[in-house]
From TrEMBL:
Signal peptide: none
Organism from which the protein derives: Circaetus pectoralis
Protein name: Signal recognition particle subunit SRP72
Subcellular location: Cytoplasm; Endoplasmic reticulum
Region annotation (Disordered) ranges: 542-681
């Protein structure tokens, strides 16, 4: 009895310790006390519950779940359902958490809160929205603002991923979380400018709320704003402001945020901006998308987009095997998705295997008829790239749901015209017009009243008529023009075309139809000719007439017979021109053909290098010989040089001197020169 009382006293002291540590938030110390209690009583339900709670508070979810699974007989689902589901949720075992919640006998408020989180992670947004509405309606506590935030997040996810028009929840956007979620919903609707304003408001509210806390630093505020700035950059990217978006993305990466999901999304968006350029940067950024835990932070569509970009990056970096491996994996995960097979076809085209790429696309189109239209458009593009325009037309005409579309008709007619296959082009017009006639017959079933044709139908008929007239098919164009005139008898342009066509086929019919043309009086337009000629866009502007005198009037009348004399421009004289000196008559000849040309002067130093023995002189030896200088006769002018002039007259520059004759050695050079060459002064 004494031992029992001592054990009870020890247990009571331990429970007091557990209670005190729990109130202080010291769950590690509380866990030690709980373990001591379990040593005394290993199947104590309360102690086991406390142990699980302590482990959860310390972040040991796996160990806590192990305790629950080990003591299933004691810890039944009714007792520990919330703790078990929460551990499974935090361990990313979302499906197991859902089963645990649904198997609980009593749905408490805590389980309902967790149920909403689980549904959001499973992307079951409709059920999640209903769960949060029920919680907000039936609960009144301090967590109402958090529930409204979660509700707005569900609406934003529906707008973004399911393209559902969000309903107005009537929530007052008093917090930056609500503003941010509202901006995300607007982005899903494509209202980018409004979304940017909401994000700016969210940033302002975030700064205000965090700056009130003195313990929060500027770095903490910037870290909290990172997700808002990331969404701003995404809007800039959608608006085509890629440089601004890229700058903001890089600023966020420099902050090194702890949210791996945010980093993965930003890295992926940078890769999409780089495309096939700046591949080295993209290879560095793709590592951020492979961080641990990314798959639990992003939606399925976000993860899928990242995998697609990895495959494209592998293709751009010429990693063919890696590209095929990634695209094949994506195709196995989403067999009906277009992008994996398009990436494979693009890789085959880079390897010059166009026929194999077309075959791959054809197989996919046969297996998935719902997506065949887009695949066949790609096949046609490949055929055009190969120069097989006719085969491309055959592929396009096999897309039944697009045969009657104006864009498809225009493309086919243009391609057939390029191939000079006018009959096939007219056949395309005919099939499209027949489709609209059948469509009108189906919609007006049982109605005998005349129904006007749709604008698209009339446009096709007019284009067909113009095409036939252009290529000389007058008879075929007449029926189309008559149909158009029947729809609008007041259309003068159509009537004129019809008369023109009949004039070559049936002139009498053309005369009869010409009576329906309006008279010249009704066709006259009140146009001010003077104002039109003097308008800004007129090529000819009439000069305003002024008052003319009698003499001026005669001159004005006779001006048409007399042509104006053009003033001759004065020729430019050289800078060194001297009017007192007679110009050189040979100035128009090239320098080599002039009689006084002596050839180029050779440098003295160059001539002296390497001639004679060391120390000897060549050029100046005769001048230094005094005996030769004394006996030599005075030099006389060379034959053909200019005569000396008196001292009073100006000295003629060498270039203006007129030699008497040219040396005989230059005759061969004069014969080789072309005639008519120009020379300078």
């Amino acid at each position: 009895a004494a031992a029992g009382s001592a054990g009870a006293a020890a247990a009571a002291a331990l429970w007091s310790e557990v209670n005190r540590c729990g109130q202080n938030g010291d769950f590690a110390r509380a866990l030690k006390s709980v373990n001591k209690i379990l040593q005394i009583s290993k199947d104590d339900v309360t102690a086991l519950q406390c142990k699980v709670v302590c482990l959860i508070q310390n972040g040991n979810f796996k160990e806590a779940l192990g305790v629950i699974n080990t003591h299933t007989k004691v810890l039944t689902s009714d007792i520990i359902a919330f703790e078990k589901a929460y551990c499974e949720y935090r361990l990313n075992r979302i499906e197991n958490a859902l089963k645990t919640i649904q198997s609980a006998s009593q749905q408490t408020d805590k389980l309902k809160e967790l149920y909403g989180q689980v549904l959001y992670r499973l992307e079951r947004y409709d059920d999640c929205l209903a769960a949060y509405r029920d919680l907000i309606r039936n609960s009144q506590d301090e967590y109402e603002e958090e529930r409204k935030t979660n509700l707005s997040a569900v609406v934003a996810a529906q707008s973004t991923w399911e393209k559902v028009m969000p309903e107005d929840l009537g929530l007052r956007e008093a917090t930056y979380e609500l503003c941010y979620n509202s901006a995300c919903a607007l982005i899903g609707q494509g209202k980018l400018n409004e979304a940017m304003k909401k994000l700016q408001k969210a940033e302002e509210l975030c700064r205000q709320s965090l700056s009130e806390d003195s313990d929060v630093t500027e770095e903490d505020i910037e870290a909290e704003l990172a997700i808002i700035h990331g969404q701003m950059a995404y809007i800039m990217q959608l608006q085509g402001r890629t440089e601004d978006a890229l700058q903001l993305y890089n600023q966020i990466i420099k902050l090194k945020p702890t949210d791996v999901g945010l980093l993965a999304v930003i890295a992926n968006n940078i890769i999409t901006i780089n495309k096939d350029q700046n591949v080295f940067d993209s290879k560095k950024k793709v590592k951020l998308t492979n961080a641990e835990g990314v798959e639990h932070k992003l939606s399925k569509k976000q993860l899928q987009a990242i995998e697609f970009n990895k495959a494209l990056l592998a293709m751009y970096t010429n990693q063919a095997d890696q590209c095929r491996k990634l695209s094949a994996s994506l195709q196995s995960q989403s067999p009906e998705h277009l992008l994996p097979v398009l990436i494979q076809a693009a890789q085959l085209c880079r390897e010059k295997q166009h026929a194999k790429a077309v075959g791959l696309l054809q197989d996919f189109a046969d297996q998935h008829p719902a997506n065949a239209a887009e695949i066949k458009l790609t096949m046609a593009q490949l055929k055009i790239a190969q120069g097989s325009v006719t085969k491309a037309c055959m592929i396009l005409r096999s897309i039944e749901e697009l045969q009657h579309k104006p864009g498809m008709v225009s493309a086919l007619v243009t391609m057939y015209s390029h191939e000079e296959d006018i009959d096939s082009a007219i056949e395309v017009f005919t099939q499209a017009i027949q489709w609209y006639q059948q469509f009108q017959a189906r919609t007006n079933y049982g109605c005998c009243v005349f129904q006007p044709k749709s604008p698209v139908h009339l446009s096709l008929i007019r284009e067909a008529a113009n095409f036939k007239l252009k290529h000389g098919r007058k008879k075929e164009a007449i029926s189309d023009l008559e149909e158009l005139w029947k729809q609008n008898p007041k259309d003068v342009h159509t009537l004129a075309q019809l008369i023109s066509a009949y004039s070559l086929v049936d002139p009498e019919k053309a005369k009869v139809l010409s009576k329906h043309l309006p008279s010249s009086d009704t066709m006259s337009l009140k146009v001010d000719v003077d104002a039109l000629e003097n308008s800004h866009g007129a090529t000819y502007v009439r000069k305003k007439a002024g008052k003319l005198t009698g003499d001026n009037q005669q001159k004005e009348q006779g001006q048409g017979d007399v042509k104006k004399k053009k003033k001759k421009k004065k020729g430019k004289l050289p800078k060194n021109y001297d009017p007192k000196v007679t110009p050189d008559p040979e100035r128009w000849l090239p320098m080599r053909e002039r009689s006084y040309y002596r050839g180029r002067k050779k440098g003295k130093k160059k001539d002296q290098v390497g001639k004679g023995t060391q120390g000897s002189t060549t050029a100046g030896s005769s001048e230094l010989d005094a005996s030769r200088t004394a006996s030599s006769p005075p030099t006389s002018p060379r034959p053909g040089s200019a005569a000396a002039v008196s001292a009073t007259s100006n000295v003629i520059p060498p270039r203006h001197q007129k030699p008497a004759g040219a040396p005989a050695t230059k005759k061969k050079q004069q014969q080789k020169k072309k005639k008519g060459a120009k020379g300078g002064w």
